[in-house]
Amino acid sequence: MNLLARINARTLPLIVTSLLFVALFAFGSVSYDSFFSAQVFLNLFIDNAFVIVVAIGMTFVILTGGIDLSVGSIVALTTMVTAALVEQHHWSIWAVIPLVLLMGCAFGVMMGVLIQYFELQPFIVTLGGMFLARGLCYVISIDSISITDPSYAAVSEYRIMFGEEAFLSISAVIALVTLAIGIFLAQYTRFGRTVYAIGGNERSAILMGLPVARTKILVYTLSGFCSALGGVLVTFYMLSGYGLHALGLEMDAIASAVIGGTLLTGGVGYLAGTLVGVLILGVIQSLIAFDGSLSSWWTRIAIGVLLCLFCLMQRFFEHGGSKLSALFSYWNKPEEEGSAGSGAQPAR
Amino acid sequence: MSTEPILVMKDICKSFPGVVALKNAQLRLFPGEVHAVMGQNGAGKSTLIKALTGVDLPDSGEIRLQGKPIQPTSVNEAQKIGISTVYQEVNLCPNLSVAENIFIGRFPMRGFAIDWKAIERESKAALAALNIHIDVNQTLSMYPVAIQQMVAIARALSTEAQVLILDEPTSSLDEGEVERLFDALRQLKAKGMAILFVTHFLDQVYAISDRITVLRNGEFIGEYAASALPRIDLINAMVGREVNEAVSATNGASATDITNAKPFVSTQGLASRGGMRPLDLDVYQGQVLGLGGLLGSGRTETARMLFGIDATDAGTVKVEGKTVKINSPYKAVRQGLAFCPEDRKTEGIVADLSIRENIILALQARRGVFRFLSKRTQTAIADEYIKQLGIRTPDAEKPIGQLSGGNQQKALLARWLATDPKMLILDEPTRGIDIAAKLEIMELVKAQCRKGLAILFISSEMSEVLRVSDRIAVLRDRQKIGEIAGQDADEQRIFQMIAGAEA
Amino acid sequence: MKPDTFRNLIRNPLFWPCVTLTLLCAVNFYFNRGFFDIEIKDGHLYGSVIDILNRAAPLMLIAMGMTLVIATRGIDISVGATVAIAGAVAAAMIGGSLVIKDGVQTYVSNVPMPLAIAGALGVALLCGLWNGLLVAGAGMQPIVATLILMVAGRGIAQLITEGQIVTVYYEPFFFFGNGFLFGIPFSLYIVAVVLIILLLLIHRTALGLFIEAVGVNPVASRFSGIQARTLVFSVYAFCAVTAGIAALIITSNVKSADANNAGLLMELDAILAVALGGTSLAGGRFHMIGTLIGALIIQTLTYAIYSLGVPPEINMVVKALVVFGVCVIQSPALREILAKHAFRTREVA
After folding, report:
1. Cα B448 to chain center, whole Å?
2. Domain range spanning residue C240?
3. How far apart are CA B451 and CA B446, in angstroms?
4. Candidate CATH numbers 3.40.50.720, 3.40.50.300, 2.40.50.140, 3.30.70.20; the one for domain B7-239
C-alpha cells in the first residue's frame, strides 16, 4: 500500500507525462529519418527556451491557486521596448536587459498588489495586464522593429557545443539555469514552501503565520520577471520586437504546467513536470514539422486534446484519489488498530 | 498547580460596528491546568481568543504573559511569545506532508536551503511525544481528521509554547479520538503547559478541565473550579436564567399507534461503499424517529443516503410501500422528502438571496422551472411562514445571511414546510443556536409531527433526541444496533446499547 | 430630490453603468457635435449611435450568454473560439458564387442558407454541450474546462477553413450583419429577440431564481431539489449558441470567415461587459440589462477612441485601465474602506 500511496495525485501525472514524452519521441524516431538525434532533442530546448522560462513563472502562480494571463503580452512588450531602445535610442544591451527585467517585475508587483490588497480575481486582473501590455506595445509602434545590434546577433548565433554535432544556444542554457533556480526556490526555500501552502489552503497559511500577502505579490512579481526574461530570450531568438510576438503564449504556458501535473486549483505540482510539459508541446510541433503534410493547426488541436485528457485525469485523482485512500484506511482497520497509528476511521 | 498565573487578561473590551462583543472580560490561566471557557453563542469566547492570538486587537484592557504586558498584533507574533492556537477546523495545508505542516513557517535551514532531514527527524519526535507514530513524509490529506488535529497540536507545541489554546478541537472527532486527544492534553498538563480549552460539549469540559470561566453576552460571569461547579449551575451561569437541565425525558409523546400503520419510508439493507453498512429503517407519519449515536456513528450519512445526496450501492428504499430509486435530492423532494442539513451555512441557506426567495426555493424547485410562482404568491407564502414560525425580521426581502442562526434555521424549516412534505429529515437543527431558539425549534418539530409529518431527527445532544423522539434508532460504527421506544429510553440505556455493542 | 430616493437610485445596480455610458456619450459629443445626429438615407437610419448599436450587436449577444454563465459561478473563455468555429461552418456551408445566368447576376449558395444557419448554430451548440459536459458532468473548474476549447477551437476552425480565409459570395447572407429592416439594422432585431426571450425566461419562469441560487450556493441549491447540473449544463449550451448567433452576424458583416481572427479576444470583451454591467464575477445576482449597457460602454469607448483620432491600438490600453478601474470600484476591499470612512463620519456627526 505504501508504494501505491506514493504514486498518488501528485506523482502519477508526472510519470504519465514523462512516459508520454518518451513515447512521442520514440514515435518520431521510428516514423521519420533523422528524427532520432541529439540535435533534434536539444532543439526542443533551443526553440522553446522562452516558453520554459515563462512556464516556470506561470507554474509558481498556478501553485498558489492563481493564474497569470499577462505573460504573453509582457513578453511582447519586452521585445518591443528592447527593440525600441536598442535600435532607435542606441542603448547598450547591458543597460536594456536589466531595465526590461525590472519593468517585468514592476508589472508583476502592480498586478499582485491589485490581487492581494483589493481582493480581485487573478484571472481578471492579469487579463487587464494582458490588455495593458499589448496596448503599450502598439503605443511604441504598430510595426515590427528588427534588431540589428551586433551584440544581439552575436548572442543569437553563439553555439555551445556538445561533442561534434550537438549544440545548445545561450537562451537554452539561460532557460535551464532558470529552471534549476526555480526548482531550488520551490523545494528548498521558505518562499517556495509558502507558495505550496497558499495553494493548499490559503486561510490555513495565514493562520499558520506565513507571509501570505508578501508571497502572493512576490509570485506575480516572479512571473512578471520570468515573462520579461522570456521576452529577452525572444529578442535573441527572433531578433525583432513586435506587438504580435508570443500571441497565445499564456495558453501554452498554462497547458505545459497542467500537462506537467500541476493542479490548477493550486498546491500540487513540480517545475520538472512543467519542463516535460513544454517539451511535449515542442515535440508535437517537431513531429508536425517533420511530417510536412500536416498543417500547423493540428498543433493547437493536439494541445487541446492533451489538456483535456490531463484535466480529466486530475479530476479523477481529486475525487477517486481521496475515495481510494478512505477505502484503504477502512480496510486496513484491523491491523492498524494496535499501532496507534492513524485513527483508522475513513476521513469524512 | 502554581499559584502565579502565567496569563492574565484584564478588563478586555472590544466592540464592532453596532455590537459590543466584550465588556470587561477577565481570564486567568495557570501553568499546568486545563481551563475551559464556556458560554453560549455570542458570549464572546471567540472574540476573547482572537484578542489573545492577535487576530483582533482589543479596544481596551490589558494582557499580561508572565507578568509582562503584551499586545500581539498577529498570529505570528502571538506564537513567537509563546501563545499557540489550534482551531476547530484543522488549519493545516492538506497538500503538504505531515512533517512540513509541523514546521512550515520556521524551517530549520542549512545554508540557503531547508534542512529536510532535520524536519523529518524532529517532526517524528514531536508526534511521538503525543504518542502518534505515522509516516511523516506522507501527505496530510491521507490521514483522518483526528490525526490531522494531532498534527496541528504537534505544530502548536513545537514553537516552545507556554500557552496552548484549543478552540473547539473536538467537534469533528469521535469518542475514541477525543480520548486520545485528552490523553495528549493530560501529558502536556503534567509538563506544566497552560491549556485554554473552548468547547460546547459539557461532558468534555468535566472530563478534562480543572477550572472554568463563564462568559455571557460579552461579560465575565465567573471563574470556578470544575469540581465545585455542578453541571446545572454551569448551565445557569451560561444561560443567565434557571433551566432544568434534566428536562424530563418523557415527551408529550404524539405516540401515533404504529402497530397497524404502514411506514412512510422504509429501507432494507440500504448501504453505501465506504459509508453506511446495510441499514433497515422505518419512518412513520405522525412520529419522530430519533437517530441516536455518537459522532461518526453514521447519523448524517443515513440522512444523506435517504435524501439521495450520497450514492447507495445496495438495498432498497420504499416510499409508501413502493420501491423507489432516490439518487438525487431532486428525486427525494419529488417523493415528499425534505432535508435540513447539518451545516446550515454551506448546505442550507443561500446567503445573498432574500428570505422570501429562500423560503420558496424548494417549492419552486419541486414545481419546476416553468410553473413559476408569481412574486405576489411568493410574498404571501413567505409572510405566512414568517408569522407562523415567528421568524424575527422586518420583512421578507432581507437577505437571509443577515438573520441570526436560529432565525435562519426557522427559515429553512419554512422552506421545507412550504413544499408540504410528508417526511422531514432534520440533521442537527439546533446546532449553534441559543437555548431559547433551540426550545422553540423543538416545539415546532413536535407541532409538525402532530400534524402527521414523518420526522427523522438527528442531534448530537442525546437529551434533545430523547425529548422529541417517539422511537430512537441507535447507531454505532455506521450500523444500526437497535431501536427503542421513546418512553422506555433514557441516556443511560442508549449509552449502554452503544457500549454493549462494543463488547 | 429626497436623500432617500437619491440613495436608492445610487444603490440601483444599473446606476453606475448608466452614469459611465452617459459620460462616454458626453465625451463623444464634446469631440463630435454630430454624435447624436441621426439621418434617414434611403429609408435607413444612419448615425453614430446607430453605428455603435449595430457594431455592438455581436458583443451584446455573447455578453448576455456570458452573464448567465458568470451568474452560476462559471466563466466561458471559449466563446471567441466558438465564434471562429461557427463562423467557419457558416462560411464554408454557404460559400456561394456569382453566377451569370441568362445575363442576370444570381448568387448561388453551396447549401440552402437556412441549412447553413442551422449548421452553424448546431456546431456552436455542440461546443456549448462540450463545455457543459466538462463543467457540469466531469466537474472541472469552468476556466479550465473552457480553456480546452479555447486552445483547440481555433485549430478546429482552421481545419474547417483549411487554413484559408473563406469568403462568402452569397448576397442574402449579408443581410444579418449589414441589412436594415424598417430602417433599423437587422442585427438589432436579433439582439432584441434574444433579449426578450431571456427576460421572459428570467422573470416569468423560475430560471432567474435558480441561476442566482446556484451561483450563490450550489450545494444548498442542490439540496433544495434544484437540478443544478442540468441548469449549469444548459447555461453553457446557451452561451455557446449566443456565440453562434454572433458568429453569423460577424461573418455576414465582413463577408468572410477568418479562423485566426474572428472573435479574437471576444471572451475578454464579453466578460468585461458583464463586469461593467454590475454583475459580480463571483456569481450570484446578475443584471441582464446592465450587461447590455456594459457592451455598449465598450463599443462607445472604442468609438470615442476612433473619433479622438488616437491610433485604434491604444484602445487596448484604455480597456485595460477600464478593467482595473471597474474591478477596484467593485472590490469588497475598497467598499470596506469606504464603509469604514462613512461610519466614522457618521459617528462624528
Report:
1. 25
2. 46-309
3. 9
4. 3.40.50.300
Q: Which residue of A has its CA nearest to B84?
A: A208
Please check whether residue B187 touches A, CB under 8 A. no
N- to C-terminal Cα separation, chain B = 38
Gyration radius of chain A's alpha carbons: 22
CATH code at A199? Answer: 1.10.3470
Cβ atoms A261, A10 nearer than 8 A: yes
Q: Which residues of B touch A190 (CB under 8 A)?
A: 105, 107, 114
Please check whether residue A199 touches B, CB under 8 A: yes
Q: Nearest residue of C to residue B307 by CA position?
A: C223
- The residues, any chain, with a CB within 8 Å of residue C62's CB and separated by 6 or more, are C79, C83, C239, C242, C243, C246, C266, C267, C269, C270
Distance from the Cα of B229 to chain A's closest Cα (Å) equals 33
Instruction: Check A8 against B139: CB less than 8 A apart.
Output: yes
- Is residue A271 situated within a structural domain? yes
Identity of residue A37:
S
Interchain contact, C227 vs B357, CB within 8 Å: no
Q: Find where cell 485528552 sits.
A: B182
Nearest beta carbon to residue A118 from set C163, C275, C328: C328
Domain count, chain C: 1
CA distance linking residue A263 with residue A255, whole number of Å: 11
Grid look-up 466592540 returns: B15
Read off the amino acid at residue B291.
L
Spell out which residues of chain B touch residue A194, defining contact as CB-CB under 8 Å. Answer: 104
**CA–CA gap between residue C329 and residue C316 (Å, rounded):** 20
Supply the ipTM of this predicted assembly. 0.79
| CB-based contact, A268 to chain B, within 8 Å | yes
Nearest to B144 among A187, A210, A346 (CB): A346
Asked if the Cβ–Cβ distance from C145 to A254 is below 8 Å, we say: no
* Residues in A touching B95 (Cβ below 8 Å): 10, 196, 199-201, 267-268
Total H helices, total E strands in chain C: 15, 8
Q: Which CATH superfamily is domain B263-336+423-503 in?
A: P-loop containing nucleotide triphosphate hydrolases (3.40.50.300)
- The answer to whether B80 and B96 are in contact (CB under 8 A) is no
Nearest CA of chain A to the CA of B464: how many Å? 24
The closest alpha carbon to B390, from B426, B454, B439, B351, belongs to: B439
Q: Which residue among C205, C225, C285 places its CB closest to the CB of B365?
A: C225
B423 at the C interface (CB within 8 A)?
no
- Which chains share 3+ C-beta pairs under 8 angstroms with B? A, C
How does pLDDT run along chain B (503 residues), one tens digit per residue? 457 888 888 888 888 766 678 888 888 889 889 999 887 666 788 788 888 888 888 888 888 888 888 888 887 788 888 888 887 777 888 889 999 998 888 888 888 888 889 999 988 988 887 778 888 888 888 887 778 888 888 888 766 778 888 887 776 666 677 787 888 888 888 888 889 988 767 778 888 889 999 888 788 888 888 888 877 777 777 766 554 444 433 444 444 555 557 888 888 888 876 667 788 888 888 888 888 876 567 788 888 888 888 888 888 888 888 888 888 888 888 888 899 888 888 888 888 888 899 998 888 888 888 888 888 888 889 888 888 888 888 888 888 888 877 788 888 888 988 888 888 898 888 776 766 777 778 888 888 888 888 889 888 777 788 888 888 888 877 778 888 887 777 776 777 777 664 43
